[in-house]
Amino acid sequence: MLRLRNWLRLRLLAFATDYTPPVEWTKADSERLRAFMKGETGLKLATQLRGLTFRGTLGAVHSVPEKLPWQCGHAAGMQNAVQILDQLANWNAEPDQQAATGTPTDDLTWLHGRDATNGR
Fold this sequence. Notes:
This protein has helices spanning 2-16, 27-38, 40-61, 68-89, 95-101, 109-112. By secondary structure, it is an all-alpha fold. α2 (27-38) crosses α3. The longest helix is centred in the middle third of the chain and has 22 residues, at 40-61.
């Protein structure tokens, strides 16, 4: 009975929630986020996110079989959150521009706290 009640509550919550369309993300927004992520607070945030991602992955590896689906979902969610921040920090208004240059890039430079041009 409890499972049915929780299932119904989640379904009602899904329909009652208003969908908010994403706001327009510009290159200027990307540059400000990238500058923030290179600052002291941004580096602390990147360290926290990296730790949460590792902790979630290790939790999934060492999990008991009953908790494995939840732990894997948690690890995937943390990884997706980091990837979204990475994409927003490296937003390119013209998606084909980066591919047209043929220059390989390190999209996770803000997470690792190093410069993409010299690898430090």
